[in-house]
Amino acid sequence: MPRGIKGLQKGHTLNVCVKNPISGKHSSKSTRVKRSESMVRYYQEHPEAIEEQRERSRGRHQTEKTKEKLRKINTGKHPTEATKEKIRNTLTGKFCGEKSPCFGKHLSKEHIEKIKKSLTGKQMPQGVKDKIRKTLSGKRRPKEVLEKIRGKNHYNYKGGITPLGVSIRNLPEGRQWRNKIFQRDNFTCQDCGARSGNGKAVILHPHHTPKAFADILSEFLEEYNQFSPYDDKDTLVRLAIKYQPFWDIDDGTTLCKRCHKKFHKRRKKLNEKEKE
Ligand SMILES: [Zn+2]
Ligand SMILES: [Zn+2]
Q1: Ligand index nearest the alpha carbon of residue 211
Q2: Which listed site, 2, 53, 58, 249, has its alpha carbon 20 to 30 Å from 225?
Q3: What's the structural domain count of the chain?
Q4: What's the CA gap between 153 and 28, in Å, rounded?
Q5: Is residue 108 part of a domain?
């Protein structure tokens, strides 16, 4: 091991550092260059030492003091194009897909809570916002690309019945259906019992159960299959007013926003399993 990095080994205590006669002194540029050259040579000759060094520093974090120092040194500095290219080359494809450390993993509940907590109420500094705006401005997708991903060709296209479903739900009959269910359930989530009051606001959702809204909708479309959900949307919306299964309050329950999300996640999983 070359002299320069001996100080980083285990057993290097603060005490030694204070007593060290060269502590706080800086080496001249030529010495530094020499030292780094010898280090490079050492690691070239002993590739296993790199792994050892890595093993030693695994899981270690820099102290706040070191971080502050690095911040000071690096502020305002930008890597050269060559360095950027190098970084790009080493990183490209290394952490994509299955190689990603997050592949197949889900964040734990606590972790998500932590992230949420650290982000709530925080705003990006104005400078950062401006920078993002600057890089994004003028970067709209070209017209021919936008044209290509419109409507049926859009990657979010789910068959084109979403607008119809939304229109049906937004009918006055839909609003009535929702209010009746809320009233019957005393404005209380039927899963966790949450209810607005005492300064607490709980957002309530009407939930279709046991039959999913999507299922009722596809049955409805089957019955009126002479109409196209895209071209005859208005006609279908008018027919939906008279279609009782949409407005049966026995087919609905009150859930809070959170429980509602949970139910749909579960239903989605079940549907996926069924398909398998
Ligand atoms: Zn709930
Ligand atoms: Zn629902």
Answers
A1: 2
A2: 249
A3: 2
A4: 64
A5: no
What are the φ/ψ torsions at residue 137 (nearest 5 degrees)? -65, 135
Q: H helices then E strands: how many in the chain? A: 13, 2
CA 207 to ligand 2 centroid distance, Å = 4
Q: How far is the CA of 230 from the centre of ligand 1 (A)?
A: 35
Q: Please check whether residue 206 lies inside any domain of the structure.
A: yes
In a domain, residue 76? The reply is no
Q: Each residue of 243-258: pLDDT tens digit?
A: 999 999 999 999 999 9
CA of 215 to the centre of ligand 2 (A): 12
Distances (CA, A) of 42 to 1, 36, 187: 7, 10, 72
Q: What are phi and psi of 206, to 5 degrees?
A: -85, 140
Assess if residue 270 is contained within a domain: yes
Q: What separation in Å is there between the alpha carbon of 44 and the centre of ligand 1?
A: 61
220 C-alpha to ligand 1 centroid (Å) = 30
Boundaries of domain holding 256: 162-275
In this predicted model, what pLDDT tens digit does every residue of 124-136 receive, in sequence order?
777 887 877 777 7
pLDDT at residue 59 greater than cutoff 80: no
State both tokens at 32.
């530094």
- Residue 260 Cα to ligand 1 midpoint, Å, equals 7
Ligand nearest to the Cα of 178, by number: 2
- Whole-angstrom Cα distance, residue 161 to residue 254? 25
Q: How far is the CA of 206 from the centre of ligand 2 (A)?
A: 6
Ligand 1 centroid–CA 175 distance in Å is 21
Dist. CA 209 → ligand 2 center (Å): 8
Q: What is the pLDDT of residue 46?
A: 83
Q: Which two tokens stand for residue 7?
A: 């100080």
* Residue 9 pLDDT: 53
Which helix (H) or strand (E) is 77 found in, with range? none
